[in-house]
Amino acid sequence: MAPEKESNGLENYAFAIDGRFCDLEKDGEGSDLSEEDDKNKLAYCVTDIPPWYLCIILGIQHCLTAFGGIIAIPLILSQGLCLQHDSLTQGHLISTIFFVSGVCTLLQVTFGIRLPILQGGTFTLLAPSMAMLSMPEWTCPAWTQNASLVNATSPEYVEVWQSRMRALQGSIMVGSLFQVLVGFSGLIGLFMRFIGPLTIAPTISLIGLSLYDSAGMNAGNHWGISTMTTALIILFSQYLRHIPVPFPTYSKTKKLHTSKIYIFQILPVLLGITLSWLICYIFTISDVLPSQPEQYGYLARTDLKGDVIVQAPWFRFPYPGQWGLPTVSLAGVVGILAGVISSMIESVGDYHACARLSGAPPPPKHAINRGIGIEGLGCLLAGAWGTGNGTTSYSENVGALGITKVGSRMVIVAGGVLLIIMGLFGKIGAIFTTIPTPVVGGMFLVMFGVISAAGVSNLQYADMNSSRNIFIFGFSMFSGLVIPNWIFKNPDAIATGMVELDQLLQVLLTTSMFVGGFFGFFLDNTIPGTKRERGIIAWNKIHLDDSSNTLESSEVYNLPFGISSCLSSYTWVRYVPFLPLNAPSSQDKPGVDSLDTRKQPGKPEPSHIIRSVIKR
């Protein structure tokens, strides 16, 4: 979700300003813009098409912005899938999630919400997935925890991890059908009427808090390296974020010159990981780090998985069912449903934030329905391809729109194509698996902390001076920590006499976000309280706002390739929740070309655009 922030020109300042940054033609109104409005004005709006090289450059940036979240998910899942000591398979999983994220991004931008929003793996499905894999029947055999006993090519070992992956795939695929139904049927609006800040806050916060053990185990392999990684990410993202770095650029008018780029705010995670990675490499070749496996700090060495890059194929095409035929369990499906609901609600908030930052009108209901439906379809594809996860909209990339001042969806299309290309080259995924585990642990410390805080930020809409709200949030959070912890320590405590019911309760009660979210939802909807006290009025103002059936809205959110025009003559269209109603076309307004190819009047040369994008 995107909390309100101050307008400093470098962050998500959209909520601090009335109106949109970029409208359709205004016929001279731009001369009345104040200096502050001119600073905040987008260089390219959602329907503009920047130069091809700018699309590629900014597309790469969006991929790098999502890099941390995308690769973290397979690395965490590898523990539950018994793949800790099989780096080659980890590389295949990373390549697969890159590929599927690219495909889902193209689907979302073209046929879904049609806003410049990147799709990638979701942490909301990670908690129920790990809870499912922690069940007694899926506990990893002891020999898989010993690197010397693992033969990655043996049929026995392959079946161990693939059987777990297939169970995870089936649960995700069935659970994603619920999201497809909710999206394309228009039920998301009904869900949003009963789910407010006091439900979302504990749900999202417990996603990060429930992963503390994973962060601790990775960071604990060498606290010095993990602390350095954390310190570097904090330094770049917080202390140096407003400091521009001069970079050499070339233009026809100015020839070779320097431009200032806020590199630390754009790529803090990547810079922190890369620098720590490099230091670990230096420590490895200089034998500062121990060379014996039993010594503390051995896992910080960079030469432990050097053969993985050599073994990985140059080209590998991921395909559905590559790990075998998915299997389905009731417990897994119900657990995944809890994550799917959280993902849907978070995405609705991302849509509105993205619309404001890209100069688009608020998304109408049909676009939101279609966006949620396409995300469900993306989760279905992710399950079929075997990423072990689903897909969702990335809030980090929504924030990047405010940094670059480029809201064009063509940039995200370029980013989606780049993700697909990265997924097709196996050695790219293999490279990421060689990151030392303490470096990954340092990244987790920051990332999971931010996720927890992002959940708490939703309380800004509710009245936290109310004892009612304090009780609901506090009880939900504490229960979401206590109950799963007790169930983990007493796995045999649930014995109803029905194996299926035992498994169902085991998964649900060990999923922190479900426990906390359930109590938040139940108490918030049953304990008396005014809508203003509960935060429902402010919440709905942000998340249920609907734009009118205007020309601007139709140009941004209507289906592409003339599909909306072809369907406009049919009366049954008004009864389909994910199709746009009849709206005036841009062709009906003289002097305005289609926004798919429109160039803003008086737009500066591309070389000047690059400077305006990266310079404050």
UniProtKB/TrEMBL annotation:
Q: Where in the cell is it found?
A: Membrane
**Superkingdom, natural source:** Eukaryota
Q: Which UniProt keywords apply?
A: Membrane, Transmembrane, Transmembrane helix, Transport
Chain segments carrying region Disordered: 586-616
Task: Please name the GO terms that the record assigns under molecular function.
Answer: transmembrane transporter activity
Q: Note the topology in the membrane.
A: Multi-pass membrane protein
Question: Where does the sequence pass through the membrane?
Answer: 51-77, 97-117, 167-187, 223-240, 261-284, 323-341, 411-433, 439-458, 470-488, 503-523
Give the family, as the similarity comment puts it: Belongs to the nucleobase:cation symporter-2 (NCS2) (TC 2.A.40) family.
Protein's UniProt name = Solute carrier family 23 member 4
Q: Which organism is it from?
A: Salmo trutta
